[in-house]
Design a protein that fits this description.
Layout: E1 3-8, E2 19-23, E3 29-32, E4 34-35, H1 39-48, E5 58-59, H2 65-71
């Protein structure tokens, strides 16, 4: 049991950068990214998928698509 590191933002400058991990026991993805705080974006998301109090919405840059696909 553990986490498998898949990749980090290719434009990283060292720290605090978006990354993708896989829980090896479950296959779940773990995404580290920038927390979305824009109220209009969160309101739009809430229309189709209400955000629970224990959930956060994170943003990953489009340049990480290949890393996310690798994790899948």
């Amino acid at each position: 049991m553990g986490l498998k590191f898949i990749g980090i933002d290719p434009d990283t400058n060292g720290g605090n950068c978006p990354s993708v991990w896989v829980d090896e026991a479950t296959g779940d993805l773990l995404l580290q990214g920038w927390e979305v705080t824009d109220r209009s974006m969160l309101d739009e998301i809430n229309i189709m998928s209400p955000i629970a109090s224990h959930e956060k919405v994170v943003r990953l840059p489009a340049r990480m698509r290949a890393i996310i696909q690798e994790a899948l």
